[in-house]
Amino acid sequence: MRPIVALLTDFGSRDHYAGAVKGAVLAACSEAQIVDITHEVKPQDIFEGAFALAASYRAFPAGAVFMVVVDPGVGTARRGLAVEAGGYRFVGPDNGLLTLVLQDHAGAALREITNPALCRREVSKTFHARDIFGPVAGHLAGGAPFDLVGPEARDPLMLPFPRARRELSGEWTAQVVHQDRFGNLTTSLNLADFQQILTQVNGDLRSIVGIAAGIVVPVVQTYSDVLEGEACALLGSSDRLEIGVNRGNAAALLGLGMGAPVRIRPARVVL
Amino acid sequence: MRPIVALLTDFGSRDHYAGAVKGAVLAACSEAQIVDITHEVKPQDIFEGAFALAASYRAFPAGAVFMVVVDPGVGTARRGLAVEAGGYRFVGPDNGLLTLVLQDHAGAALREITNPALCRREVSKTFHARDIFGPVAGHLAGGAPFDLVGPEARDPLMLPFPRARRELSGEWTAQVVHQDRFGNLTTSLNLADFQQILTQVNGDLRSIVGIAAGIVVPVVQTYSDVLEGEACALLGSSDRLEIGVNRGNAAALLGLGMGAPVRIRPARVVL
Amino acid sequence: MRPIVALLTDFGSRDHYAGAVKGAVLAACSEAQIVDITHEVKPQDIFEGAFALAASYRAFPAGAVFMVVVDPGVGTARRGLAVEAGGYRFVGPDNGLLTLVLQDHAGAALREITNPALCRREVSKTFHARDIFGPVAGHLAGGAPFDLVGPEARDPLMLPFPRARRELSGEWTAQVVHQDRFGNLTTSLNLADFQQILTQVNGDLRSIVGIAAGIVVPVVQTYSDVLEGEACALLGSSDRLEIGVNRGNAAALLGLGMGAPVRIRPARVVL
Quick check: pTM over 0.80? Predict the structure, then answer.
């Protein structure tokens, strides 16, 4: 298989940073296919970067290497990490960016990046994506053994991502964790939560409703299960509950954004 | 030749969607060279997507596969199509996105996408670019026979794109169908129309003028045929008449945008 | 090594232009790995394009070809150039875009692009990136001899980029030449200048200060050498002095932008 290095950063697409990183990856592995996931993560927003990674990495073939950099602490003592999990490799700062990936894979292997032979000859104090993470990702994609990166690492920084919660009443409370370009609102309620809810109602989607901004919306399979312009809730493509509007913009229609509370109520709760 | 998969979507470059699609293409064909045409088509604007495709695909070498997704109807009964035309393959929803390509190629072959073996193992109801169109594009680029996609398809949805019209007076009326980043205004008057106009005036460009926002502008070969800051009309690089300003912004100068009327008047019409 | 063609333009990522250029590169060399540096250079801003190129090209492996197009004079008599320097090749209009690269490499070889065999069959007057520069870049990446491009060229257009200046007092004056997405402000004071300043103070960073917007900031090695929210000056990753704020936005905090004056004062000047 041809080596693949996928990039996810907050560098933006206007400045030269993403371009320099690609050069550095290719300098380490000229055969690599470089893939942009996004460079438009909100500057220094580690949560947004972690969500974007979690929502996309499983679509890639095994063997892919992900260089993930949202790095407000560049130049401090924070470690650089390489992680092997689920057939993939991940390279980036040890600042919580990989929290969701690590939660997905109990058996993940971690290494601290210490081997200068895998880095750029001169390492700056302000651009580790170009000087450390990009080159390490390129070398790993090109076949460098994972152990070569550096010593085993423990206790990666795990950030407290919002989780949905089942209340005593049987109702679930969640919050909006991402708003996409179309105005769809992704929540903290994940696939495992959703399956638990389905069990509560014997698998009958029509027995649950979502409540966002005080409005009750049906839980459906796809946007077009409601009329044009109507809101609904569904298990979205990133395996999280999301609020959407058929051919419309849920964030605008409902006046909701990041952090907004969303509830899921099984039908046996009286409406 | 190395397989090429070119992507054109309205997913934006901030969210993870385009990245997930790339992963899915590579999961189907890890050798593919993935090329971003644009992911910044206005959300759900099928016309804009169709114009961007029509203006760019011919620059690619034969054999390229285009995955084209602007898909407000995802999850409905709308079909998925694969098209073979002009040495290229196109994959996307049957919603009019391919209208201009199909108009270019009378002998195009169409297939409805029905073969699950070419799709992702699990197909969501909301993200067919990742689960159907991307994988099909990857497999086609990697050598899968076109017939394998599914049964022959007829009657693809064709959208009524604005066309320029020759009036009884000999004058042509058109409208602005695209405004680019530089403020150039592309119109609905295409190459065939333009050649017909040239015939009307015996090939003499100087015998025609464009009229936009009530202002008469010369028809020239390139922007610099007029003085800096002056407006002109010319046959643009996408083989359509466009209004531009030498080293300036025509949209701003003339106060024109999408849908604005533009006329072309041969010289024998008295000015 | 696999051929690499890196693209740097002001075409934006919304329109189809960058996509068409990629198609044209691949039509000339289907094996090329295409790399986007940026397409978001401010429209027609040659200075910004030149800075972005100078700040990124050295990260690439030798052999890479750069197609660099910010070209307000397309269609005029301005020449097209190919340059061989430092193991790289550069292709673009002769309008000053390559000034900083040429200043880096005294022994650069220059050719005027005149060979139609390396261009697209039909060459438009308004889109030379697709019809000339992209195809030439592809052919060079694919192995076409550099001499084939056209005759030797002399006297490329060199633009007067702002330079830092050492005043009689020993103080240096510079100006902001780039503001990035994070609000960091890159100045015209380059590596050679900085090394000269270090010599003035016997290599002791703590003996110099930066002054921007009337505020004295310490010169440090990395952002985190100052407290969170505090401003500092440092030799940035693009080998120029830059003003930044630890986990903050210097442009916003200091109210500074493009062209703003910045001074560097060795300690022996009384503060």
Answer: yes
Please write the tens of the pLDDT for every residue from A167-214.
998 899 999 999 999 999 999 999 999 999 999 888 888 888 889 888
User: Could you tell me how many residues make up chain A?
Assistant: 271
B136 in Cβ contact with B90 (< 8 Å): no
Phi, psi of C225 (to 5 degrees): -75, -10
CA distance B133 to B69: 8
Q: How far apart are CA A42 and CA A49, in angstroms?
A: 8
Of A11, A34, A73, the CB nearest to C35: A34
> In residues, how long is chain B?
271
Of C2, C37, C223, the CB nearest to A16: C37
Residues listed for chain C: 271
Q: Mutating which of B21, B44, B126, B128 best tests the A interface, going by the most A Cβ atoms within 10 A?
A: B126
pLDDT of residue B269: 38
CA dist A118 and A131 (Å) reads 10
A vs C, Cβ pairs < 8 A, gives 113
Which one of C10, C11, C16 makes the best mutation probe of the B interface by having the most chain B beta carbons within 10 Å?
A: C16
Rounded to whole angstroms, the Cα distance separating B240 from B262 reads: 12
pLDDT digits (tens, 9 = 90+) for C8-44: 999 999 999 999 999 999 999 999 999 999 999 999 9
A22: which residues sit within 8 A by CB, 6+ positions away?
A7, A34, A134, C6, C35, C36, C37, C59, C60
Q: Which residues contact C199 (CB under 8 A, 6 or more apart)?
A: none
Strand arrangement of the beta sheet that strand B65-69 belongs to: B33-38, B4-9, B65-69, B88-93, B80-85, B109-112
ipTM: 0.94
| For chain A, counts of helices (H) and of strands (E) | 7, 14
CA distances, C168 to each of B124, C173, C193, C265 (Å) = 70, 11, 15, 12
Contact present, B156 and B91 (Cβ < 8 Å): no
- Which of A109, A154, A149 has its CA nearest to residue A132? A149
For A97-120, how does the pLDDT look when each residue is reduced to its tens digit (9 = 90+)?
999 999 999 999 999 999 999 999
Structure tokens at A129: 């994506």
CA distance B99 to B105: 10
DSSP state string for B190-250:
EHHHHHHHHHHTTT-GGGEEEEETTEEEEEESSGGGS-TT-EEEEE-TTSEEEEEETTB-H
Smallest Cα distance from B73 to chain C, Å = 22
- Interchain CB distance below 8 Å, B180 and C30: no
